[in-house]
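Tokenise the fold.
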Amino acid sequence: MNTTEEKSLNFIEQIIEEDLRKEGKTGGILTRFPPEPNGFLHIGHAKSIVLNFSLAQKYGGATNLRFDDTNPVTEDTRYVEAIQEDVRWLGYEWNGPVRYASDYFDKLYEFAVGLIKMGKAYVDDSSLEEIRRMRGVPTAPGEESPYRNRSVEENLDLFERMRSGEFEEGSRVLRAKIDMASPNMHLRDPIMYRILHKHHYRTGDKWHIYPMYDWAHGQSDALEGITHSICTLEFEVHRPLYDWYLDQIETFHPFHPRPKQIEFARLNLNYTVMSKRKLLQLVNEGHVKGWDDPRMPTISGLRRRGYSPASIRNFAERVGIAKRENVIDVSLLEFSVREDLNKTAPRVMAVLNPLKVVITNYPEGQTEELEIENNPEDPASGSRKVPFARELYIEREDFMENPPKKFFRLGPGRKVRLKGAYIIQCDEVIKDGEGKVSELRCTYYPESRSGSDTSGIKVKGTLHWVAVPTAGMVEVRLYDRLFMDPEPDNHKDRDFLEFLNPDSLQVLPEVYVEPSLKSARVGDRFQFMRKGYFCVDPDSKGEQLVFNRTVTLRDGWKKR
């Protein structure tokens, strides 16, 4: 008997399977990921990427990468390159070449001319302010434009002259002629083209008119043969327009297959802003150090912080696909990161706030190498040699001069085990002129060596450490959540910047690490024992390594 529990289908999978059943097929769908190249992708886009590519993989299909480059004012090739890098980093490869909405500008113009000839589109000389006013409100019919009933010949002439650059920006638009009384505002004669005398990074100065998203999107889907156009929920009210455009064009240019738009709830995270405008503001005003700042929810920021592609994919799977908007706790993302790195990240020892320990009965000048496992969760990861010496660094927080009863670390007369090494006892506390503890004098038990302990001594605490003679020094950046409020952009009377966390970055310029880290490379991930997961930052130069804290070992925000 098969005891494996089959995962239930989400609502999008149910739709796809029903479509395939009707067509007598078992697979072969084509999805697409259509970002606008006007910024960097964030964790919400990652969910969409995972959804589109995983659906195609499940149903034996493929996914196109198509840039919605219909606004030359805000778009840039650096965003195009960054988005491609993000998609590949997440572990996906798109179908065929990279595609662009601008690939279809000629065809879209041809389709627009077709609608004009059908009497379904017209050139409007009204200003944008007048058009907004005439559209009215959903509860009452709008007002028809005085230019709505121009002749086909006049509209064709004006549209061609718009294309050739004869008119000023803002002087005319091309609108679809649908229904000014529709309760759906998107059907009240939407704008299809506006005049922009702007250089396009791909088409140069060929065009003086550029298509609106709603006009370009559905037709681009259809021209590519997209079967299922997966959009976020805000496009649900746009779907009647998506279908109306296809209905009209199919009268003179049939599409097969015809794309079907399906909407799902976008990803919303607490303690985060996802608005591209607000993310850009954070960058431009210097609140963060760029789009790839490890505090940003951008994919490039998460990558630099040390998040793994698998952790983001697993997070997207955990969140699931919903029809209603909701807010996901960022701790679920952090849990997914911990879960993945716990399996893959080597354990190493690093002392962030050092306190010197001298083992008085250990031979001066002697160093020995101890065998320590790399990752107890991964038996295949093996072990490494870590040097041990008379003088060590431990964490200052691992010592208390007057420890409480349940403090199982080091104190006067107390014993602890050093990870992978020996049991030591604190015999003497040395203080500086200001009364601050500067050094501990300890003795060790030679027979207590890990793996061959015959001492019979029982201790409850185990501390990480670094040998002074062989220690490396690195910079560590302790990153935390960028905002202190769970919904920083959901306060009507307050600026989201008021909720910035002043402690979102703490820099430790002198952190001591075991010598194995001297060979670490940019992007390598480690668990600093008892401290969290860390990643080598691109700011590292030669032997001057910089580590970013990816995530703590457990969620400390629950206690705040």
About this structure: The CA atoms of residues 79 and 177 lie 35 Å apart. The two ends are 49 Å apart (CA to CA). The chain has three domains: 105-212, 266-346+471-560, 350-464.
